[in-house]
Here is the input.
Amino acid sequence: MTTLRQLRFLTALDATGNFSRAADLCHVTQSTLSTGLKELEERLGIQVAERTKHSVLMTPLGTDLAARARDILARVEDFEDRARQDATGATHIRFGTIPTIGPFLMPRAMPLLRAAFPGAAFYLREELTEALIFGLVEGRLDLILIALPYALPAQVVTEELFLDGYRLAAPPTDPLACAPAVKGTDLASRALLLLESGHCLQRHALSSFPEVRLDEDQSFAATSLPTLIAMVEEGLGITLLPELALDAGAARGHALELRALPDACPRRIALAWRASSAQAATYHRIADALIEARRSLRERSDQPSG
Here is the structure.
């Protein structure tokens, strides 16, 4: 019999196109994932992927079955979630967020969420976007807070919450530190310090000025925004920082200059859940609380410091 575990292996391989990354998403060894997929293929008498030493290519049938597997996994999780809520009488919401949103928005949002849902238990987890989407589709998570644009499977629906623009962060000695506002053309000849590959903010920052090619400093990649800020403060380069993080105080106390980027394309912050979930009304209320949290952060940032 085909197992749910095998379906998770299939969807992970389809999502990543890589056995090692798929195994990481499923929290198993690569050999376990490979064996499980071979057993699935042998049972069904099909081939879901073409394998070479250096690449994995999903077959058309494998891609189609992976999409069907995502739907099955989502419906199974919603089935179990409904049963758990009825059995306990409590609402448990497993909430995932990317690291460039969660630490800055969720501390302000949690009091609002607890007031709006006094009987609910929220379990927060930070992961990169790819892992969050996989966790949502396979049922490990109920809600995810992500930044768009990002390719999403058909089983996922979103509610956009707010736009998150950027400001240039530069050391005081940088030529751009005194500019009242910075244009994309001002950055065309500069290499930006950015987060490491896997963080969607890296891709979003590089595409913030579509008409200008922005380059990344290949000699450095940060694992977090605090590290990135520290590198700029030490004079190692310049970067683009999200306004959400800045409004939450991420750069407070650091010796760097922040300059407006009025023409930059913002990233779109969105809440996402499975289309099959029966909790959409609850998730819309959660979205309202997140929007209110962002508004209050902006208002606090606009107040003069005393």
